[in-house]
């Protein structure tokens, strides 16, 4: 059952309006900032997040059962434009699809997407660039996240420093992007190289791809954090979702500025 802070607080506010102790304008302001949740027992779904942050709550599928995910989707779809669930196995998706036939599965990204009310696509695009083919799963999580939130995305994969001429073939396309996401494992050098060649914000995503001294992505993470190229922001290891979310926020700011 949904609650607005608490039922008593909502009742008190309505009584204050009825008794003319609080104006309709003031009550509207209070309601606009109220925090609404849907308590499912196993989860307290944040229904106010889109109003508060501009994006609805995202479901992290790892560690949740298919039934729990289905319950949260059912709660969110009454309030959210688009629903995104990350880190969902094919087995969980099979169960989810039975309950939500319109739910789409992006297998490489391991994301479930339910488009309740698709958003218009941005004029500017986000470029998602990978060092290698092995980095594509994390890159797809970033790309799908950005697309769910109405962004145009261009994928430029397998252009790492081991064959740097491949990068230069796509450099104009990368430079024309409004935001660039660079996904790399091994030593993570691609983010520094791209960062030194563009004038747009760059979000670097280290991946856990690599041999022993990659240390599960720690080596790539440290390389990106210590990059001498300016304008690089680094997210956590394998966090394609975080990169796609941040890039979406930046890209939408750009479109907003163009509309003024």
Please state the second-level CATH architecture of the largest domain.
3-Layer(aba) Sandwich
Structural class: alpha/beta
The counted number of beta strands is 12
Helix content: 25-40%
N-to-C SSE string, H for helix and E for strand: EHHEEHEHEHEEEHEHHEHEHEH
Estimated radius of gyration: 21 Å
Enumerate how many helices there are, as a single number: 11
The major β-sheet equals:
5 strands, parallel
Low-pLDDT residue spans: 1-6
CATH class placement of the largest domain: Alpha Beta
Any key phrases for this structure?
11 helices; single chain; four-stranded mixed sheet; alpha/beta; 12 strands; 19% strand; 260 residues; Rossmann fold
Which helices and strands occur, and which strands form pairs?
Elements (H helix, E strand, L loop, with lengths): L1 E3 L2 H12 L5 H9 L3 E4 L4 E3 L2 H5 L5 E2 L5 H11 L5 E5 L3 H10 L4 E3 L4 E5 L9 E6 L5 H13 L3 E5 L8 H4 L2 H5 L3 E6 L5 H6 L6 E5 L11 H8 L6 E3 L5 H20 L1
Parallel strand pairs: 4-5, 8-9, 8-10, 10-11, 11-12
Antiparallel strand pairs: 1-2, 2-3, 5-7, 6-7
Helix pairs in contact: 4-5, 6-11
